[in-house]
Amino acid sequence: MSDTERRDEHIEHQASEKTRSPEVVGEEQVHPVDDAPRPQEEPVEETEYIVLDSDNFDTVHPADAADHLEQMTLGQQLALIESISPEDAAATISEMDTPHRAELIARLNPELSADILEQMYPDDAADVLHELEDEQRERIVRRLRKEDKAEIWHLYRYDPDTAGGVMNTDNLVLDPMLTADQAITFIRREIEDEDIEIPYYAYLVDVDDKLVAVLSLRDILLSKPGRLLKDLAGDHPVISVRFDTDQEEVAHLLRRYNYLALPVLDYDGRFLGVVTHDDVMDILHDEASEDMLGMVGAGQDETVDTPWRKSVSKRLPWLLVNIANSVLAASVVRFFEGSIAQMAMLAVLMPIVANQGGNSGQQSLAVMIRQLAVDPLDKRKALLAVGREARIGMLNGLVIGMLVFLAAYLVTGNGVLARVMGAALGLNMLLGAVAGSLIPLVLKRLGRDPAHASSIFLTTVTDMAGFFIFLGMATVFLLR
Fold first, then answer.
1. Confidence (pTM)
2. Where is the CBS domain (predicted)?
3. Are 464 and 319 in a shared domain?
4. How high is the mean pLDDT of the chain?
5. 269 and 373: one domain?
6. How far apart are CA 398 and CA 407, in angstroms?
């Protein structure tokens, strides 16, 4: 037998030994030892449990570092921020939630706070200044470098809930008379030398700083080298916003036109800055949170970390309003006190009528508030929306009313009471749907946030109407 044949036979013998069934010794199984390397198991993700310190800080994404930082005590936060570079601190603090970053910046040494703000994008730095008390803000602003102070203070003057308040002023601004190859050279130099935030587009402005056109970087890169930018732009319409445009409207426009950024102009058409899609994502998140909290009368910027005294001051006024509304609803019941005394079953059934009307109204309320948030309605569309909700409420009321009529009849054996119960419930569901669609429109008309405590007003309407309709019909058809 040749050496090659012996080697092949030996390999086959080893393979058969490894795949053979385990031998039985007594009652125990003996498995052959397999020394072959095993596939390495996937490492378990442990980023949530990482101990963040100055040694590993630059290995963690700023957003993750912000999450870790928020779990620390204030003393630990201060010690860690003081041990890392202002650049790393700026990137992380920009990602933190508002209450955390405001308290942290306020408690840091003013010199370090100023250094950190100088490393932030100007719009983020202006947002932080808005979150501070006057004395804290002045202490930090005095220590900013002159050029940084001018840029940050320029943005600070704008309302933080408008396009001017969320725009960024570090952008690619080009002369329309540049050629494509000159523009590419200029862009490369600007990105290397300046702290420009995500250059999605280049903005062409004339000698008066008025916006002429917007070009994507792709258009410039793919253009012929000698072609002028003004010719490359053509006559395409420019979608822009004014500096005082509400941030929700800015978010709506970016979503509508699928843009990554929108230019911000003054009333003379001069270019001021740009709102980018990452800013809009933050806006939409904040607005959704505010709407959800506002619907129930909680503080619109409240979190589980908000000081309890502040939460009480935000919630208590609306709870007092709710008490007043409950007294109004109770006064309706008191008006029918004699009817309830004659038939105790009315007291058992009337909460069902009120609650079901409230549920119907809450559905309409949620739909209308969402609609107003993403696409404000004109008068005609508003009337159509109210009519639609009324039809839905009426149909749901008919179905639920018939089911409740059958259930009430089976339970009480009183056909008149069952009919009154079903009819009152159906009517209150219709009324709740109409009220739920009208309340946000009325608040919007009055210049108020449609989401703010709207459910409190809705509950008052459906409770009062439900009690009045049910007890009134019972008095007329059952007790007279």
1. 0.62
2. 234-290
3. yes
4. 83
5. no
6. 14
How many CA atoms lie within 13 Å of 439's alpha carbon, on the beta-carbon side?
27
Neighbours of 456 (CB within 10 A): 18
**Does residue 473 sit in the same domain as residue 345?**
yes
With respect to residue 233, please indicate whether it lies within any of the assigned structural domains: yes
**Average pLDDT for 433-449:** 89
pLDDT at 307: 75
Together in a domain, 240 and 115: no
Q: What is the pLDDT of residues 55-89, one digit of tens each?
A: 788 788 988 888 888 888 889 899 999 999 999 99
Crossing angle of the two packed helices 345-374 and 379-412, in degrees rounded to 10: 160
Q: Which of 151-165, 245-259, 263-277, 446-460 has the lowest mean pLDDT?
A: 446-460
Helix-, strand-, coil-residue percentages of the chain, each rounded to 5 = 65, 10, 25
Q: Is 240 found in the same domain as 131?
A: no
Report the CATH number at residue 139. 1.25.60.10
Rounded Cα distance, 461 and 325, in Å: 9
Nearest to 188 by CA among 226, 224, 220, 162: 220
pLDDT at 406: 95
Contact 474, 420 (CB under 8 A): yes
The DSSP-derived string for 202-214 is: EEEE-TT-BEEEE
Residue 413 forms part of a structural domain: yes
- What angle do helix axes 415-445 and 379-412 make, rounded to 10 degrees? 160
**Same-domain status, 101 and 149:** yes
Q: Is it the case that residue 2 has pLDDT exceeding 80?
A: no
- Residue 327: which domain range? 308-477
Mean pLDDT of all residues in 242-268: 89
CATH number for the domain including 231?
3.10.580.10
68 is a domain residue:
yes
- 38 part of a folded domain: no
Instruction: Calculate the dihedral angle through the C-alpha atoms of 189, 192, 197, 200, rounding to the nearest 10 degrees.
Output: 50
Same domain, 461 and 318: yes
In sequence order, which residues have a C-beta less than 8 Å from that of residue 420 and are 6 or more positions away? Answer: 470, 473, 474, 477, 478
pLDDT computed for residue 205 by the predictor: 94
% the chain with pLDDT above 90: 37
Domains contained in the chain, number: 3
Total Cβ atoms within 10 A of residue 107:
14
More confident residue, 3 or 165: 165
Kindly state the percentage of the chain with pLDDT values over 70.
86
pLDDT computed for residue 27 by the predictor:
40
